[in-house]
Amino acid sequence: MSKNIINIITNANYESKKTATNLHKVLTNYGYEPFNGFNKNAELSICIGGDGSFIKAIHKNDFPDMPFVGINTGHLGFYQEIKPDEIEKLVKDYKNGNYNVDDIKLIRSDIYTKNKVYKFYSINEVVLKAAHSKTIHMNVFIDRNHVEKFSGDGVLVSTPSGSTAYNFSSGGAIVYPSLHVLQMTPISPVNSAAYRSLGSSVIVPGVHTISLVVEKRYKDSNLLLVDGSEYFFNNLHRVNIRLSNKVIKKLVFSNNSYWDNLKDKFL
Ligand code: NAD
Question: What is the CA radius of gyration of the chain?
Answer without folding.
Answer: 20
